[in-house]
Each structure stands twice: as structure tokens, then as C-alpha cells.
Amino acid sequence: AMLDPDSGLSLTIARIVQRLKGSSLHSQLERQARVSLRKPEIKLESLKEDLKDFLKTSGWEKKLQNAVYSELNVFPSPCHPAAPPEHMKEPLAYMRKAQGSWEKRILKSLNSMCTELSIPLAQKRPVNEQKELLNKWNEMGTDEPDLSLFRPVYAPKDFLEVLMNLRNPNYENGEQPSFRNHLGLIQVPLKVKDIPELKEDFSELGLNIGQMGIDDSAQVPPEFFENEHVRVGQKVLAEQDSAAAQQYVRQGCPTALRADLWALILNISNQPEDILYYEQLKSNVIQHDLLVDKLIYKDVKLTASNDDYYFVFEDYLYQVLLCFSRDTSVLEHFTYSSATPPKSYIQGKLGMEEYAVFYPPNGVIPFHGFSMYVAPLCFLYHEPSKLYQIFREMYVRFFFRLHSISSHPSGIVSLCLLFETLLQSHLPQLFYHLREIGAQPLRISFKWMVRAFSGYLATDQLLLLWDRILGYNSLEILAVLAAAVFAFRAVNLMEVTSLAAAEAVLADLSTLKVMPLLQIFLFATV
Amino acid sequence: RIMAGKVKWVTDIEKSVLINNFEKRGWIQVAESEDWNFYWMSVQTIRNVFSVETGYRLSDDQIVNHFPNHYELTRKDLMVKNIKRYRKELEKEGSPLAEKDENGKYIYLDFVPVTFMLPADYNLFVEEFRKNPSSTWIMKPCGKAQGKGIFLINKLSQIKKWSRDSKTSSFVTQSSKEAYVISLYINNPLLIGGKKFDLRLYVLVSTYRPLRCYMYKLGFCRFCTVKYTPSTSELDNMFVHLTNVAIQKHGDDYNHIHGGKWTVSNLRLYLESTRGKEVTNKLFDEIHWIIVQSLKAVAPVMNNDKHCFECYGYDIIIDDKLKPWLIEVNASPSLTSSTANDRILKYNLINDTLNIAVPNGEIPDCKWNKSPPKEVLGNYEVLYDEEMAQSDGPDRDLRSRSGQSTGVKGNRARDLGKPVLTTWK
Question: ∠B12-B17-B21 over CA atoms, to 5°?
């Protein structure tokens, strides 16, 4: 039975009201309303109307709008009222099953590392160690714990193997594989967009529309686009309108306005209670040692510490990620993620639900490269609690989709399929050639997409790309960019004869300019 | 002569970034005793070449990479002396550049931390020290490089032996080898990621009178591997305070992939994103300004020998108010590469330098006008061209410094190779 639009809308409203009730915004609104009662313009006869007007003029209505907008962005539209909660996580049963198996594998790997090394998953830190860590909080990078025995729980290529083996049991592909069928690594029939649809969705990236990343270059006089764009950006910030900001950043952010625009879109205001919350997480880190901490250290040391752009921020990465692991508010995102947080049991109480805890407390086990989600944000935010909140919000809105198995259009499976389909449809000769020489394109582009290109592009280009992720509230642009990169280097790729040679052609993306690549691929390719 | 048309080169600095550049131009290596056209010398050699005793005469087709008395700029004590003299001269002339604020500090020319020569100015130093007894000062030997012999002090007792009256003073005051400069230590440096850094910028001077200088666009930031802390207990930890790569390389955390270095464009991106575009533009304009002023300060005393050009390494520290400070100028910036990126940068630096100093890679004629076409600049951009500035009219006032050239467009035009900064007097 079709869900009629009215009941869909009232379901959404009910859900949003329920989520915002009891939030700090709610109590602030109540407080503001109460305080305003003393104002002369609030009259008893027209109390409701006067209050509404007051909240509007004082900017509080706008804050409420932004919060509602944020909820709409993050949560999917409700399914049928009769649908079970797992459908909000993932409607397709076979995907849920695959995600479940993957999670079991990860947990098994983590537990066996635990047993092998005889290290508990979590333990309280002795007092002298607590003191030491507190002193070293701002320079944990100088610590050199022995991490040689720890290995990342998994790397992107392990995850790709799992995705390659995904099959829909209800889909009988009886045809012989031919050049008409999908010849890529992903063999599940998800719906992905084609270029005409992408052109429509990403219409603001069109050739005749000004872009940061193209029209702000040295050769273009700023009067043509940049000055006006900056002016509009300042206006959007002055109005504090999330929806307007989201629309605005589709054309990219001026560098000086980006930090504030992203915070506005993500609805992060760094209130005192947010700072307090961060400090609370910090004290959790001081008091308890988690096994995942070692994984985080190892990851940072292997990736960000060696990166030309991000090595400077190594210490900030620990300060963010160690707190992140302990943040139980992150558990909320599992209602709309296909993933389920791993459960662990207090020693000796295996299987007893009263003694079950989520492990790590935020339910997210980091993998190799995870710290690269945080690193680019350090160029924008230098206050730890704000940096933390921005990252957390980016994770629960976007990044979680890059390492969980789901049918969501922004999920990694769809992105892989979108990439392969775009390449196969528009560069069939290249695709076929690469496949013939054993260099399936996805094998190369997968790691780019899983990391949202962090660590592969120059930072200024990466930030222009992430502008569009926020602007379109979608990760599909990652697949489009990956295809555009292949298109750009097609001539060289046609000449290679091995996977290694193809990797070499695509090893260095640091000189690429993303916006021209995207524009040409979407709007100027015949 | 068989290879009549090819440039004959000599060097006493065995670095691949140099030699590869000479060879790629098809130049021929010769010995010092032979007829050479181009000699990339160490600073010791230049001293000999131009010393009164040897009476070396360079011919018109010979070029060297140092000015004879470069030390007026590159010795820490002489640099400070020349800048102080320059300021006093401007003040005497009544120039608006020498304007002071209500505390007696130069508004536009206060870019070198308070510095004294030791032991010559010991008493003056003590007077200054006592005004701020909790301040930290940095002692640097005048004649050494790469961070050698540098130490920090925060108590007078630590430098007692430089006192002129000291009975324990064991050295001759005239000896330039044991002379030190003592400068107020910038203890509020701008920190990024909690780390201290300094800027290394390359500046090419082809002539001092008229002054023509170029700035290399690809400078870099050198980060300390250990967290910066102003605490007194860390004063002895050179890894925290000194950013010289030669010192950092021996710290535990030195990384051979990035070498603790950031490009200047990363710095700009970070500052624009976290502080805004106007203050960032202002910072970079101020950096250009202080470099040009330092060159103007020494220009009158420089032996503007037409056989010479020089590529300097400028060390600049930015404080947390985004004010740049000139720490020192190096005549022989290191050509050693600590990372792969470094090697590429230095190779390109030498390449672009040679393209400007030795036009078309052909046998030079030192009488040429030293005005290369803008196509050969490569990664250099014109920093200041006195000839062009003067032809723009003598009545440019000081306001143009903070007007046009600091506008949003200011940096853009520089990218186009236009000498935007020549509007300064």
C-alpha cells in the first residue's frame, strides 16, 4: 500500500518533534519565551502570536528552522508506518545479512588480537598513568608506544573483497556475461544514476555557472564572480540560514568563509554545553584505556603523520579520535545506518545481556585510514571541541556510509556501482582494456572513495570537493570524480599493460583540479 | 677553441641540484685555474676572490653567485647595524617611513627583534634586559650557521662572561669569530597544530643599485618536531626552539617523507581558513615589505659589482599577532635535500635562478641590463624593481603600500608576473 503524502509528512513531523523535545535548543526556546513575557510588546490577549513574532525577530525561529533542516538532512524519509525499524537501517534483507557477517568478521578479528596480545578491550588506567596522559594531552604525538604487535582490523581492500562477493539471492542473472552486462566487480542490481540524471542533480556545477575552484583562479578578474560570491556568502552567514548555506556551497566556499559555512550547514554552534561534553569525553579518555586507542595511534602514525599536508595536526587527531571512540551519542546514528554496534560482555559474563556493553562505546571500530576523515578538517578548525563536533557530525551524516554495506544511494556499494557504470557507459574502450589486462578500475578507485579522497588530493582541492558533498547532501560526487579522473588520464591508461602500471598512472592525484574535471566529465563530454 | 660557445662552470659546492642544472644546459665543467664563465662559490671562496691581497680581476664574461660584501646583510650583527643605520637616516630625512608610534617604536620598520652585539653593547643590553626581567633572549654566534652554537638565556648570570668588564672575559673584543648577537626571543610565535615553525623564503638579487630583486614563490615552513612550550624548563631543549632542519633532523620525531616542512601555500590556506583573507594578505604583504626594506638598508654599502648576483635564504618568524619578524638572511642557503620534495624544489630553484642570472644559458656579458623577460622567471616573481618604481613617478605616497598591493587582487597580479609591489618608495 502506498504511503499517502499526508501521513508521511505527519510521521516526519512527529519524529522531528520527538527528537527535538528535550534537546538543549528546546530548553533555550522555552527560556527565551519565558523571558520575553516581561517585554511590553507581548500582550496576554495575543500571547501566541506575539511570542511567535518575538521568536522570529530575535533569530530563535531561524535556529529552530536550522535544527529541523538538519534533522531532515540526516534522517531518511520514513517508510511505511508498518515497516519494521530495520528498514530505516536497510530495506534489503540480503544487504542486512551481508553487513551482519562483515561485522562478525571484524569483531572476531578484534577479539583474536585481544586474546593473542592478552590485552583487555578496556581497562581503567592507573592513577599515575592518568596524570601522565593529562600532562601530555596536547602532544600525544611525541609518545611512542610500541605498536608493532597491533595491526589495523581491516584495510579498504579487505572490504572491497566482501563487496565483490555480494549477491542478491532474488536476482537470477541467467544471461551469459557479455559486453552488455555489467562487467565490473560489483554484481548487485542497485539503481544508480546516469549522466543525464547527474547533470540535473548537479546542475549548479554547470559550465555557465560560477564555481570556486575554477572562476576564482589567478587568471580570472574577481569582479566576474568571486567578489559577488563572497558578498553573498557573507550575507548567508549573517542570516544564519542552514538551508541557504547548503544551497550556496554547491558553488564552493571562499576559503575565509568555509569554516563558518560548514558549521552552519552541520548546525554546530559550539555552545558551552558542547564544550563541557567534549571535556567529559576527554576525562573518559584519561580514566579508561581502550584497545581501540592503540588502533587509532597506529592509524595516525601510518597515515596522517606521513602526509605532507596533515602531519602538522597529528596531535589534534588523537584528541579528536580518542574522544570519538568514547562518545555514546554516536550510537544514535545506528538507527539509520545498516550497521549495528558490536557488543561485548564483561569478563566472565558472556551472553548475559545485563553485562553487555557496546564496544567501543561509540560502536565504531576504526580501520586503516580512518584518521584521514578528520585530518582535512584541521585546516578549518583549530579549537578542539569545535573540530570534534564538526567531525562527529560529518561522520554521522556522511562518512559512516563509506564503510558499511547498504543499498543507500550514498552508500559505498552504490558509489562503486555508479563509478563502474559511468566508466563502462562513457569510456567503454578504456574499461574493457583495463579489465582485459587484469586492472579492474574499481580496484584502484575504491580506496579514493572510501577515504572521500582525503590524502589523495591537495587539501585545497579536497575542501572544494567536500563543499559539494555538503551542498548536495550526497556522496555520489565521489564516484563521479573517480570516473572523471580515469577519463582525464585515459590516454595514458590505454597504453598500460598491467595493474601495477595502471596504479602508477593514477598514483599521484595531488596536482588535479577537481572542479574542471567534474565539469568536463558531466557537462562537456559527448 | 672547440667549445667556444658553451658556458664553462666551476663550483666548490658538490651538490647534485647544482651540477644537474649545469649539465642539463650543456655547460662544460672546468677547473678554477682555467678560464671559467660561471662560478658557484662557497662564501669562503668569494672572500678570497675579492680580497685585497689576491687582486682578482673578473672579466666581462665571468659571473659569480655572491656579492663581495654580502656579509653586510648575512652576518647577524652587520644586518642589524645596517638596518638601524637605515632607520636613523630615514628619520633624519623626515621620511614618513620612519614614523614612530607613541611608545617610540617604528611603525613600519620595526621588523627585527631588539638586538645587541656582545660584548660591545653589553651594558645597553643589561639596561634593556632589566626592563623585562622575565623575558627570554637568544644568543647567536655571528659567524656560524645551521643553528650551531645557539642557546637561550633568561638570566643575566648565563652570559656573564660576555660582560666587557668581566675578569673572566677571555677573548679579544675585536675578534669576529667570538662575537655574538643577543636578540629578544619571540616567545609568542604563531603555532600551528601546537607546533612552532619558521619560514624559509628565497630571494634573488641581481643588482643593488638600482635594486632589483625576485622572490621565489615556493618557500616553505619548517616545523619543530617537538611541541612548543615557552616553559623555562624547556629552554635547553633545542628541538623545541630551533627550527633549523640541521638540528631537527636529529630529533626523535624527524620524518623523512615530509621533513617537517609545509609549503607556503599550505600556510596561506590554513591562515585564510582560520583567520580570514584580509589579515592573511596583510601578513604576506608585510613579509614582502620587510624583505625589501632589509635590502634597501644594505644597498648603499653593498659593493654592487656587476659580475655578481645572489640568492639569499631569508628566515622569518611569525608571531601570534600575525606580525612577521626577520631573524636572519643566509648567503648560502642549504642545497642539501632532506626529502624528495625538497630535492625537486631546490633543483627548480637553481634552475630558475640560473635562467635569470645567465640569460639564455649563454656565455654571459656582465654589462647587460639585468632585466630578464618575464617568461624566464619561472617560479620567481618580481619583488621590487627600483627602476620601474622610479619611472612610475616620485610622488607615490605611503598609502599605496597598504592600498592597492594588499587588495584581494594584489597577490593575483603578482602571479601574473606584474611587479605590483613597485609602488613603494
Answer: 90
DSSP A190: -
Predicted TM-score of the model (pTM): 0.88
Q: Is residue A38 part of a domain?
A: yes
**pLDDT above 50 (res B171):** no
Cell numbers for A176, please give them: 551469459
Q: At which residue does the C-alpha cell 635594486 appear?
A: B211
Hey, are the CB atoms on B273 and A379 less than 8 Å from each other?
yes
Distance from CA of A213 to the nearest CA of B (A): 13
Same domain for A303 and A347, yes or no, is yes
Report the residue of B243, B270, B280, B339 to disrupt the A interface, i.e. the one with the largest count of A CBs within 10 Å: B270
Give the pLDDT band (50/70/90) at residue B415. Answer: very low
> Strand pairing of B38-40 and B8-11?
parallel
CATH 3.30.470.20 fits B74-112+189-388, yes or no: yes
Q: Are A104 and A153 in contact (CB under 8 A)?
A: no
A389 and A313 part of one domain? yes
Indicate if A383 and A277 belong to the same structural domain.
yes
A9 and A145 in a single domain? The answer is no
Chain A neighbors of B252, CB-CB under 8 A: 142, 144
Is A498 domain-assigned? no
In whole angstroms, what is the distance from residue A354 CA to residue A360 CA? 17
Task: Please name the member of A221, A259, A312 whose beta carbon is closest to the beta carbon of B223.
Answer: A312
Residue of A nearest to B197 (CA): A312
Q: Where are the beta strands (DSSP E) in A372-447?
A: none
Helices (H), B147-225: none
Domain limit, last residue, from A30, A55, A78:
A78
Q: How many angstroms separate the CA atoms of B296 and B302, rounded?
A: 10
**Residues A279 and A144 reside in one and the same domain:** yes
- Of the three residues A400, A433, A464, the one that is the final residue of a domain is A400
CA dist B341 and A30 (Å) reads 58
Q: Would the CB atoms of B270 and A379 count as touching at under 8 Å? A: yes
Question: How many domains, in total, are found in chain A?
Answer: 2
Which parts of chain A sit beneath pLDDT 70?
1-8, 76-81, 172-182, 346-347, 349-353, 355, 526
Q: Which domain holds residue A71?
A: 5-78
> How is residue A124 annotated by DSSP?
E
